[in-house]
Amino acid sequence: MSAEIVESRDFLVEIGTEELPPKALPTLSAAFGRELSAALTARNLTHGAVELLATPRRLAVIVRGLATAQPDREIERRGPALAVAFDADGGPTKAALGFARSCRVEVDHLERLENDQGAWLVFRSTEVGEPTTSLLPSVVGEALAKLPIPRRMRWADLDAEFVRPVHWVVMLLGGEVVPAEILGVGAGRTTRGHRFHHPDPLPLETPDDYVTKLHGQGWVVPDFAARRELIRTQIGEAAATVGGHALVDDGLLDEVTALVEWPVAVVAGFDHEYLELPAAVVRATMEGHQRYFPLVDDAGALLPHFVTISNIQSRNPAAVRDGNERVIRPRLADAAFFFRTDVATSLGELQTGLENVVYQDRLGSLADKSRRVARLAGHVAIAMGLDPEAVRQARRAASLGRCDLLTRMVGEFPELQGTMGAEYARRAGEPEQVAAAIGELYHPRFAGDAIPDTALGQALAIADRLDTLVGIFGIGQAPTGDRDPFALRRAALGALRIMIEGALDLDLPKLLRAAAEGHDAGFDAEGTARDVGAFMVERLRGYFVDAGIPVQVFLAVQAREPSRPYDFAQRVHAVDEFHRLPEAASLAAANKRIQNILRQAGDAAIPDAPDESMYAEDAEWNLAAKLVGLGPRARDLLRARDYKGAMGLLAGLRDAVDAFFDSVKVMDDDPAVRANRLALLATISGLFMETADISKLQD
C-alpha cells in the first residue's frame, strides 16, 4: 500500500507591536518558535525547519513545509463482550444497543473483535483530519499565551493582554491568509516596514516574500542573528576609520540588536581629559548608560572615541554624531565628579558606614557580614597554605571588600562594585594584593565568567559565598523550586568552580562548619553545614553533567563521599576516562557482583589479605598474580591521587576477573577456602573503591 502523500506549505506568522523590551527580545523570539512548534506537534501537524525572526517591532516565525491538514486517524472503540451483547436468541441487549447509540450507528454496523482474551463488539471508523487553517488560530494563540512575560499589559478597551500593544498580525499558509483574530487584531497579509523609512503597508504574497520585502523595500533586517552580525561588522569597520578596535560585549551587542531594525554605525568622540578616569568608569558610562561601544588602541588603551548604532540612515550623519557627543559629555562629567568625590574618602573611612546598612534582618549589617567574611577568609587562606602575611591581607581585603557599596560611583554604576573597590584601595595605599583581591570578590559573576586570578581573591570569594550560603540556609531561606531570591545556586556553583578550576585542595565540610560557627543567629551550625554541603553536591552534579559527564560517572564518585571538590573533580575525570574503555562495562559488572557477594557474606570473618597457599584453581592463581603485579603500582598512584593512572592500570584486571568468575566457585563449601576467595575479591573491590564505586556505572 502506497504511503499517503501529504501536501505542505510554508507558514508565516508575524505579531507587529510597539517597541518590545530589548533585553527580553531574544528570549521571547526563541520561546515563540519553541511553543509554536510544540503546539503544531501536539495537533499532529508535521513540519520542517522553524525560522525565528525578531526586531524591536515584531515577533515572527516561518514554519517550513507545514502539512495542510492533519492525517486521517483510524479509531477503534471496544464495546461490551459478546456474551453480554446478545441474548440467547441472538438479539442485541441493552448493552449492545447503548454502545451502538454512543457510536451513532446501528448494531448491525458494529464489528466483532476476537482474540485469546475473549470476544467483544467493536466500532471502527476513520476520523478525517482537520485542515490546518482551522487549527492555526488556536496554535498561535496557545503559543503566545505561553511566552515568558512576567507582566502582561492591556491597551485601548480590549481584553487582550500582551507584553506590548499589538498593531498588526500576518498569518499566511502558502499564499492563503489564515482567517483569525489574534490579540484583538484580525490577521492579514500586510506587514509594515521601518517606522521612519517605510511606514507604509507592505503586502506579502507568500512567506518567502517576508525577508526579501522587508529588507529590500521596508528598510528592516528581520533576522535577529543576521542583524547582529551586520552590526558587529559595521562596528569593526567604523572603529578602523579612527585607528581603533572596538570592545564588543556580547550582552550589549544583543541589546543593541534588539533596539534597531536598520542598523547604521556612527563613530563619535569625547574630550581627552576623561581618559584620566579609570577605564572601567569610562566604559561603564558608555556601555551601561548609552549603549555605546568603546574603542581601544593596539595596546588596549582606551581611545577618546566610541561607536554608536543608529536606527536610521540619516542624510546628515554629522548631526547624529554631534547629538551623541552632546549626550555623552555630561554623562562623563558626572562620572568625573563622582570619582573625585569618592577618592576624597578612603575605603577604611567608609567602614563605619557599613554598620548602618542592613545585610539581612536576622544576619545583621554589612559590617557584620564583613567581619564574618574576614574571619572565614583567614580560615580559607590558612587551608590554602598561604603564609601568615597573606592570611592577614586576606582578612584586610575582606574587611574592606564591601566598602565601595557606599561610594557615589557604585551607587550610579552597580556593575562596578568590586572594580571600584580595587581602584580606591590602590589610591588609598593598600597593598596591591589586597586591592586585587577586592577587585575579584564577586568573580565569577555569571556562568562562564573567569574565576579570581590571585590566591587572595580566591580565598575572599570563597569565604564570601560560603558565609552567604550558611547564613541564608541557617535562617530557613533555602531555595525552593524556581525561587532563589538570594542567588544561592549561583553562589554555590561559584565557590565550587573556584575550588575546582583553581586546583584548591580544600575540605568543604570543614569550611562550611567554620562558616556556620561564625554566625550568632541562633541556628544549628552543624545541621546547617550538612544541609549546605548536600545542596552544593547537587550543584556539583549539574556542573559535571553540563560539561558532558554521564550522571552515572558522577554517582560512582559521589558514593565515596569525597569531601574536597578538587579531589572530587579529579576522580570524576578519571572515572569518565575509565568509563570509555572497552574493559569498563565488564569490570563494572564484576564489581557489582563482588559487592553483592560480600554483602551476602555478611559478618563472615574475611581475612585482611588472601593466603596464596590456599589457591587451588588456575583462574584463582592467575587473578592473584595479576593483583600482585598491579596492586603496589596502583596503590602508589592512588597515594599520589593519580586516579586516572590507577584506573587505567586496574583496567588490566578485566580478563583475569572474567576468567575467575567463569571457573571459580567463590562460596565454596569449605569455609576457609570461601573466606580466602572473599578476601581476594575484597582486595580488588577496595582498590577500585579508592577512587569510586564503579558498580554504579551499571545503573
Characterize the structure shown.
This protein is of the alpha+beta class and 699 residues long. It folds into five domains: 149 residues, 2-Layer Sandwich (Alpha-Beta Plaits); 53 residues, no CATH class; 120 residues, no CATH class; 200 residues, Hypothetical protein af1432, CATH 1.10.3210; 126 residues, Isoleucyl-tRNA Synthetase, Domain 1 (Orthogonal Bundle). It contains 26 helices and 18 strands. Strands 1, 2, 3, 7, 8, 9 and 10 form a seven-stranded mixed beta sheet that branches. The protein has a four-stranded antiparallel beta sheet with strand order 13-15-16-14, with helices on both faces. β17 and β18 form a beta hairpin. The longest helix has 27 residues. The chain is flat and about 100 Å long. 40% of the residues are buried. The mean pLDDT is 92.
Question: Top keywords for this entry?
Answer:
4-stranded antiparallel beta sheet, 7-stranded mixed beta sheet, alpha+beta, single chain, 699 residues, 5 domains, 49% helix, 18 strands, 14% strand
CATH fold-level label of the largest domain: Hypothetical protein af1432
**Percent helix among the residues?**
40-55%
Strand content: 5-15%
Oligomer: single chain
- Which residues form runs of ≥5 with pLDDT under 50? none
CATH C-level category of the largest domain:
Mainly Alpha
Q: What kind of sheet is the major sheet?
A: 7 strands, mixed
Structural class: alpha+beta
* Distance between the first and last residues' Cα: 44 Å
Number of domains: 5
Using the CA coordinates, give the radius of gyration: 35 Å
Count of alpha and pi helical runs: 26
Please tell me the overall pLDDT.
92
CATH architectural name of the largest domain: Orthogonal Bundle
Write down the overall geometry. flat
| DSSP strand count | 18
